[in-house]
Design brief:
mainly beta, 8-stranded antiparallel barrel
Length: about 170
């Protein structure tokens, strides 16, 4: 039993060393759809991790955070959190990849309204579908990314246009 376990651990360690892992940060302009259909622009950012599954496929996970505060007499504060996990299709052209991705996204929005000593807040969570297109420029060990992401949820669509940088940790691309 212990020999089988040690063989299994060695195989996993060998596969993990051959799998390229990239981690970095994205910064984007988030155009969040409001109830009336208008869009509010917020600067968002957060970490991104990408696990290479061969030359043409990867699995990407990211988290985005945005915050806004408005008003002087009556204030409104909004926190926007989004996490997504998406498989990516990479189409390589020399040192550049054209990337298409789609997968689930979970959005959490918390808004607090206050003024004259009273406060009211609301929090809601939405499960949606995240899709996007990006261009990756490989400058090993650095990858620069620019792209557009869309998140479709019940009666709303959020759009973000952003830039990112990912650093490679091990494995062959």
């Amino acid at each position: 039993m212990s020999r089988f376990l040690s063989l299994f651990v060695m195989l996993l360690a060998g596969a993990a060393g051959a799998t390229p892992l990239r981690a970095g940060v994205d910064v984007a302009l988030l155009l969040r759809q409001e109830a009336g259909g208008q869009r509010t622009g917020l600067v968002s950012g957060g970490p991104r991790v990408s696990l290479g599954l061969g030359r043409y496929l990867a699995l990407s996970a990211d988290y985005r955070f945005a915050w806004s505060s408005e008003g002087t007499v009556a204030s409104a504060t909004t926190q926007y959190h989004r996490a997504s996990l998406r498989p990516e299709l990479h189409i390589p052209v020399r040192t550049t990849d054209f990337v298409l991705a789609a997968g689930p996204a979970l959005t959490l929005l918390h808004t607090t309204l206050g003024g004259s000593g009273s406060r009211v807040s609301t929090t809601y969570t939405r499960l949606g579908i995240s899709g996007g297109a990006a261009v990756d420029i490989h400058l090993e060990p650095l990858t620069l990314r620019t792209g557009v992401d869309l998140v479709w949820a019940a009666r709303r669509m959020d759009v973000s246009v952003g830039l990112g940088a990912l650093f490679s940790f091990g494995g062959a691309p």
